[in-house]
Amino acid sequence: MRFETPATTNPIDQLTVIGKPIDRIDGPLKTTGTARYGYEHHEAVPNPAYGYVVGSAIAKGRIADMDLAAVKAAPGVRAIVTADNAGKLGKGERNTATLLGGPEIEHYHQAIALVVADTFEQARAAAGLVHVDYVKAEGAFDLAAVKDTGEPRPLFGGPADTALGDFSGAFAAAPVQLDATYTTPDQAHAMMEPHASIAAWTGDKLTLWTSNQMIAWGVGDVAKTLGIPKENVRLISPFVGGGFGGKLFVRSDALLAALGARAAGRPVKVALQRPLMFNNTTHRPATIQRIRIGATRDGKITAIGHEEWSGNLPGGRPEGAVSQTRLLYAGANRMTATRLAALNLAEGNAMRAPGEASGMMALEIAIDEMAEKLGIDPIEFRILNDTQIDPEKPARPFSQRQLTECFRAGADRFGWSKRNPQPGKVRDGRWTIGIGTAAAFRNNLLVKSAARVRLDNNSTVTVETDMTDIGTGSYTIIAQTAAEMMGVPLEKVVVRLGDSTFPVSSGSGGQFGGNNSTAGVYAACVKLREAIAQKLGFNSAEAEFADGEVRSGNRKVPLAQAAGEGGLTAEDGIEYGDLDKKYQQSTFGAHFVEVGVDVATAEIRVRRMLAVCAAGRILNPKTARSQVIGAMTMGVGAALMEELVVDKRAGFFVNHDLAAYEVPVHADIPHQDMIFLDETDPMSSPMKAKGVAELGICGVAAAVANAVYNATGVRVRDYPITLDKLLEQMPNVG
Amino acid sequence: MKSPSDFELSRRKLLAGSAASVALTAAPSIVNAQSPAVPSEVAIAEISALSKVSFTVNGTARGLTLDPRTTLLDALREHLRLTGTKKGCDHGQCGACTVIVGGRRINSCMTLAVMHEGERITTIEGLGTPDNMHPMQAAFVKHDGYQCGYCTPGQICSAVAVLDEIKAGIPSHVSADLNAPPQLSNAELRERMSGNICRCGAYSNIAEAISEVAGRPA
Question: What is the ipTM of this complex?
Answer without folding.
Answer: 0.98
